[in-house]
Write a structure and sequence with these properties.
The complex is a heterodimer of chains A (about 140) and B (about 425). With about 140 residues, chain A is of the alpha+beta class. Chain A has two domains: about 5-75, VC0802-like; about 75-145, ACT domain (Alpha-Beta Plaits). In chain A, about 30% of the residues lie in helices and about 35% in strands. In chain A, strands 1, 2, 3, 4, 5, 6 and 7 form a seven-stranded antiparallel β-sheet that branches. In chain A, a hairpin with a 3-residue loop joins strand 2 (about 35-45) and strand 3. The longest helix of chain A has 11 residues, at about 20-30. Chain A is globular and about 45 Å long. The model of chain A has no long low-confidence stretch (mean pLDDT about 90). Chain B has about 425 residues and is α/β, with parallel strands linked by helices. Chain B folds into two domains: about 1-325, 3-Layer(aba) Sandwich (Rossmann fold); about 330-430, ANL, C-terminal domain (GMP Synthetase, Chain A, domain 3, 2-Layer Sandwich), CATH 3.30.300.30. In chain B, the strands form six sheets. Chain B has a six-stranded mixed β-sheet with strand order 4-3-5-6-7-8, sandwiched between helices. Classes of the chains: A alpha+beta (about 140), B alpha/beta (about 425). The interface of A and B includes residues 14, 69 and 70 of A.
């Protein structure tokens, strides 16, 4: 199985914990007409990491780097969930049974479905086990 | 013992050296008490008489001299030689007020030259070497000091002074220069210009050594220059108040040998003036034991270093001082502990994940001082995982705390967000209202 098609390129941006930093990032993406599918902010002492799935990750990387931001790409996977009670539970069980360790996760609930985005240690293994257990992974092309 | 200019003096047993220092100190103090109105008044004010000097350690009873003593007595108010005994003046630039003038008798110049003859021999220079002196010639002591020192040991001097770098590089090649004496930043500049000219210092010149000083530099800079230029780089120390550049490391590169028969070295707490033990960092204080025109007793250099009194692996018995780690003027006192911005820089440079830019913010919460170090993470080290970033931060906190002995908070900031400096960096913001 080609795990490549399920591997999604997420951008991660280092940000100081002070007012206006998210606005600066969002404005930069707006200027380049980049659409954000999902994003999250993780915070630690004095700084945070903004993570986002966007339609043009390479362009976003270029733009933000030019503005002086520290940006990196991270491979994540996205699992479709039923948008009803028990949806997360089903997926969480599959992930747990497959002994996949979640580094971090965030979710969004859209028109078509609810989606759980995961960063895991071993992306390829996780893709195989989730698919084998009947999980519905979203192809990377859906995010372009 | 390895080759030395004056083996008898340089490897003199410590107890003999100290006896010699005591004798010279005693003579000096009596002479100044009798003939220097300035120093006689100083001694009376601090209630000390030459008879109170009964052993070498009694030097601590004597009052300090500071730079403003020279400035306030501009130009020659505290000279102890008559004008017709003087053979030279040097004048230091007055960046912070009036300049200071140093006068020399023939004997003073002789001691200065001797000091450098010993130093240059200790790094392996001698007859057959060609020494390019790229320190400024003129009122500044660097050029002429090195010039006469190198001539004394039989080396050939190329007195290029500073400037016209391309010509310096051509001469370096054509005259087969083996050693250069200049500031570390000028040598870096020479390296860059040479590269543009298509000249590799390492492969296309005979250069094997740099005698570098007159400004602060780091061990990292030394390693970089030694590797890229294929040279050995030695630290040199001196200030115009002492005569000029006088002392260097030996080939061991384990500290700068201070010739004990010429200078008595002390390290004192910059706040209290109390003497510190070898290995403790503090302000470097010199007593020049044999100066005629402008004797300096317990002169506070403002330079921060520590002393090593052990016999060097080269066999020389004279005490050594470590590479300077800052100026007293830059020192911060955090909860009673002395902290130097250069220590922070040193710690950060040893951590690969850290960028080169940082700021120190000092504040006071209630009655307690706080110290915050803001540092830019290097782009290569940026990880999407919060835990990785937290680990980097913890590593910096730990390293700073163990070196500074002060509780430090560390903030990782975005690259490019800290101020950039041209020339002297101002990396400290002290918000304390005292």
């Amino acid at each position: 199985m080609d795990t490549q098609e399920y591997t999604i390129k997420q951008i991660s941006v280092f940000s100081e914990n002070r007012p206006g930093r998210l606005a600066a990032i969002a404005h930069a993406l707006e200027e380049e007409k980049i659409n954000i599918f999902a994003f999250s902010i993780a915070e630690a002492k004095g700084f945070g990491v903004v993570r986002a799935l966007v339609d043009k990750p390479d362009l976003a990387y270029k733009k933000l780097t030019e503005l002086g931001f520290m940006v990196s790409f991270t491979n994540v996977i996205a699992v479709r969930m039923r948008d009803e009670p028990g949806g997360l539970s089903d997926i969480a069980r599959i992930i747990g049974d497959a002994s996949i360790n979640i580094e971090y996760a965030y979710a969004y609930s859209g028109r078509d479905a609810a989606v759980l985005i995961l960063r895991v240690d071993h992306v390829e293994d996780a893709i195989r086990s989730i698919r084998a257990a009947g999980g519905d992974l979203i192809r990377a092309e859906m995010f372009t | 013992m390895v080759r030395a200019w004056d083996p008898r003096i340089e490897s003199m047993p410590k107890d003999e050296l100290e006896k010699l220092q005591y004798r010279l100190l005693k003579t000096l103090v009596y002479r100044l008490y009798s003939f220097s109105p300035f120093y006689c008044r100083r001694m009376k004010e601090s209630g000390v008489h030459p008879d109170d000097i009964r052993e070498l350690g009694d030097v601590a009873k004597l009052p300090f001299m500071v730079k403003s003593d020279l400035r306030d007595n501009y130009p020659d108010g505290i000279f102890t030689a008559s004008r017709d005994e003087l053979v030279r003046y040097h004048v230091s630039s007055g960046t912070t007020g009036k300049p200071t003038v140093v006068g020399y008798t023939a004997h003073d110049l002789e001691n200065w030259t001797t000091s450098l003859a010993r130093a240059l021999t200790s790094v392996g220079l001698g007859r057959g070497d060609v020494v390019q002196v790229s320190y400024g010639y003129g009122l500044f002591t660097g050029g002429l000091g090195l010039h006469y020192g190198a001539e004394r040991i039989g080396a050939t001097v190329v007195p290029t002074s500073v400037g016209n770098t391309e010509r310096q590089i051509e001469l370096m090649q054509d005259l087969q220069v083996t050693a250069i004496a200049c500031t570390p930043s000028y040598l870096l500049h020479i390296g860059e210009v040479a590269e543009k000219m298509g000249v590799s210092i390492k492969n296309d010149t005979q250069l094997k050594m740099g005698i570098l000083g007159a400004e602060p530099w780091s061990e990292q800079m030394r390693k970089r220059m030694e590797e890229t230029m294929g040279i050995a780089a030695y630290d040199i120390y001196g200030t115009s108040e002492l005569s000029g550049p006088m002392f260097t490391e030996c080939t061991e590169q384990q500290g700068i040998h201070i010739w004990g028969d010429l200078a008595l070295t002390e390290i004192v707490d910059p706040q209290t003036g109390e003497r510190l033990e070898p290995g403790e960092r503090g302000e470097l204080v010199f007593t020049i034991l044999q100066k005629e025109a402008l004797p300096m007793i317990r002169y506070r250099t403002g330079d921060i270093t520590m002393m090593d009194d052990a016999v060097c692996a080269c066999g020389r018995t004279h005490p050594r001082i470590a590479r300077l780690s800052g100026r007293v003027d830059d020192m911060l006192i955090i909860r009673g502990i002395n902290v130097f911005p250069s220590q922070v820089e040193h710690v950060l440079m040893s951590i690969p994940e850290m960028g080169e830019h940082f700021m120190i913010v000092v504040d006071r919460k209630g009655s307690l001082d706080t110290m915050l170090v803001q540092v830019e993470v290097s782009r290569e080290a940026f990880s999407d995982k919060i835990t990785d970033l937290m680990n980097i931060r913890a590593k910096v906190v730990h390293a700073l705390r163990s070196i500074l002995n002060v509780n430090v908070d560390v903030e990782l900031v975005e690259p490019g967000s800290l101020p950039r400096f041209e020339g002297k960096a101002k990396r400290v913001v002290d918000k304390r209202v005292i």
